[in-house]
Design a protein that fits this description.
Number of strands: 12
Largest sheet: 4 strands, antiparallel
Structural class: alpha+beta
Mean pLDDT: 89
CATH topology of the largest domain: Jelly Rolls
Order of helices and strands: EHHEEEEEEEEHHHHHHEEE
Number of helices: 8
CATH architecture of the largest domain: Sandwich
CATH superfamily of the largest domain: Jelly Rolls
Strand order of the largest sheet: 2-9-4-7
Shape: elongated
Strand content: 15-25%
Low-confidence stretches: 1-18
Length: 220
């Protein structure tokens, strides 16, 4: 890697933080309030998993989690409460995703027939539409970062994403493992790119933990 042909840009405006600022918090809290007396509380310990089948959906009120694809265990997304899981399966039975708690989670488990009891309520359909659009936008963002791009672009996007995680949590995350979980790039390929970035002074990694990002070139 050389600096001669690199376009250096600052990190704060990266689109990876989009979902934090655009998350429909009020809609999620409204759904939690609506079903708080109907659903029953479920707890997941760190590392425990959950799969939706259309019979139930879950409103996550505490904790954080990853969404993982079944066949190859590719990590597709990470999120934290408040959140909803199992919405898609209410309309399309059969899921290729499962939820894995990255921190202990508390959630309301609601039977799908309880939702259909409110099917004539326009406010409910408005809220579900807002959530569907939000999740679609996250999917589009994910594809823009990982589909049809080179390995360096994938690594770069995941470094920015990792940097957006609070430092207390980030210090428990191995950079190489995190990138590999979300991209399925080879370990050697990831380490080669990280090594070049470290030697170029673009990032600071200590004991496998991402400490800081200075600037990241758009090209490798």
């Amino acid at each position: 890697m050389t600096t001669r042909n690199l376009h250096i840009i600052p990190t704060p405006s990266e689109p990876l933080s989009w979902h934090h600022s655009h998350k429909p918090q009020e809609v999620l809290q409204s759904l939690i309030h609506r079903f708080s007396d109907i659903g029953h509380t479920v707890s997941l310990r760190e590392g425990e998993t959950l799969t939706a089948n259309g019979d139930f959906f879950w409103l996550i009120t505490e904790g954080s989690f990853s969404l993982i694809r079944h066949p190859d265990e590719l990590h597709l997304d990470a999120d934290a409460a408040p959140a909803i899981f199992g919405l898609n399966e209410l309309f399309h039975h059969g899921s290729t995703l499962f939820l894995a708690a990255t921190k202990p989670c508390q959630m309301l488990c609601v039977a799908s027939h309880q939702l259909w009891r409110h099917k004539h309520d326009p406010q409910l359909w408005y809220e579900l539409t807002v959530l569907a659009i939000y999740h679609l936008q996250r999917l589009i963002l994910h594809h823009s970062q990982l589909v049809g791009v080179d390995a360096y672009t994938m690594v770069r996007s995941k470094l920015f994403e990792l940097m957006s995680i609070p430092i207390q949590e980030r210090m428990h995350i191995n950079v190489q493992q995190y990138i590999r979980q979300y991209t399925k790039l080879s370990r050697s390929g990831i380490l080669k790119i990280l090594s070049a970035l470290r030697h170029g002074g673009y990032i600071d990694i200590q004991r496998g933990r991402l400490m800081s990002i200075n600037h990241l070139p758009t090209r490798y």
